[in-house]
Amino acid sequence: MSGQNTINESSESKWVKIIAPYRNGDNLHSWWQIINTFVPYVILWVLMVISLSYSYWITLPLILISAGFLVRLFIIFHDCGHGSFFNSKRLSEVVGIIIGILAFTPYHRWHHSHLIHHRTVGNLDKRGAGDVWTLTVDEYLALPRRKQLAYRIFRNAFVMFGLGAGLLFLVGNRFTHKNFSRKEKLSVYLTNAGIAVLATTLCLTIGWKAYLLIQLPVMYFAAIGGVYLFYLQHQFDGTHWYKDQEWDFKTVALYGSSYYKLPKVLQWFSGNIGFHHIHHLSSKIPNYRLEKCHRENELFSSIKPIPFLQGFKSVHLKLWDSKAGRLVSFRNLKTV
């Protein structure tokens, strides 16, 4: 792959030079993104409450649109944790914690796991933190049948996206673990308290039935969209994973992270996260500069995009075939 060779041969100074103009957020641009995301989200909540007086069929499309705005808010939350959205770390934390309450996600806990993900993604010897549980073919075949069944259930698309996504945000994020740091535990407690206050306020204002009829499906559909995007970022046909001694940050960032070419409206709602190869190359680039960085540098022309509909085929990939150097489905086990 000539394009990849060109990238691997690039010096560190060249990388710094390419990335430098796009790093770090512009506060004015960042505040505008918050305004054009948070304000419509609030307006949609008002409209959904009003629509309940007429028909839930009117509420449902508003719920789907609201879920899209919640995904976009989550991208801002994500950028705040990387320190790419605002120049002030304190401001990033405050905004991130508030959005975390709206997205049912503890800020410091989630970002601790996510930063590990950035340091270990594509490393076969360091799987397990902030990523999707993935076994190699040999690991899977060595498991007893009950554990193979458990893995198959976990990797089932309906379970992972239809059930798991909603449970992760609504239930999983509510609990601490003995391995959490004090800061992570406090993050979970603070988020839970914020959710309780917000939920109580809304229940007293619009009624608990209206709150649940709106909040639960908005969170559910946003969770499905968010988990799918996260899944596809490193689980796609053509991704690159390596053993620790062969792992290289730049190669995995560019060829182990997807360039998901979404329709413009979905690209906007997903905060340009489809340019995930650029994000992993430098997490200090805010979401609103990812496309610009990709477009303005010929070096990225060798990155093969994943068309929107083709992305859905990736959900069938379940195992890493170390011999072939690719992800395969369970059907491929017969030919591996």
Low-confidence parts, pLDDT < 50 over ≥5 residues?
1-7
Counted beta strands: 5
Q: Indicate the percent of residues in helices.
A: 55-70%
| Cα radius of gyration in angstroms | 21 Å
Q: Report the biggest beta sheet as strand number plus sense, adding barrel if it closes.
A: 3 strands, mixed
* Beta-strand fraction estimate: under 5%
| Assembly state of the chains shown | single chain
Order of helices and strands: HHHHHHEHHHHHHEHHHEEE
**How many domains make up the 3D coordinates?**
1
Structural class: mainly alpha
Sum up the overall morphology in one term: globular
Mean pLDDT: 93
Query: Helical region count?
Result: 15
N- and C-termini, Cα separation: 24 Å
Write out the strand line-up for the largest beta sheet, numbering strands in chain order.
Answer: 1-4-5
Structure description:
The protein starts with a helix and ends in an 8-residue tail after the last strand. Strands 1-4-5 form a 3-stranded mixed beta sheet. A two-stranded parallel sheet has the order 2-3. The chain is 60% helix and 4% strand. It has one domain. It has 15 helices and 5 strands. Strand 4 (319-321) and strand 5 (326-328) form a beta hairpin. Mean pLDDT is 93; it is low at 1-7. With 336 residues, it is mainly alpha-helical. The chain is globular, with a radius of gyration of 21 Å. Helix 3 (27-51) runs antiparallel to helix 4 (56-82) and helix 4 packs across helix 11 (208-232). It has helices spanning 2-9, 12-19, 27-51, 56-82, 89-102, 107-120, 137-142, 145-155, 157-170, 182-206, 208-232, 249-255, 264-269, 276-281, 290-296, and strands spanning 135-136, 260-261, 306-307, 319-321, 326-328.
